[in-house]
Amino acid sequence: MSYGHNYTPSIAPEVILDIQKLPPCSAQTQCPQCRQFITTEIVTSIGNVACLVCITMSILGCVAGCCLIPFCIDNFKDVTHRCPKCQSPIITIKKL
Question: Topology versus the membrane, per the UniProt entry (predicted)?
């Protein structure tokens, strides 16, 4: 008998405490500075991979501006996780 109650078990989100294992997207962790449990903010920045892809595309003949495309694609950029409360950087994940 169900008595009209629908029980749906809730699944707690995974909190990643080892900052070396943070993915390249926002994740829940504990800030090493303020010790709060937070969901990280991510900031992308141009890194070595974007520059190498740009240079490679230039060498292959993509000189009409197409070689600049890697600077617009987040998958080619480095990712920095930041605490939304104290704004301190937690870790930077470099693509290369």
Answer: Peripheral membrane protein
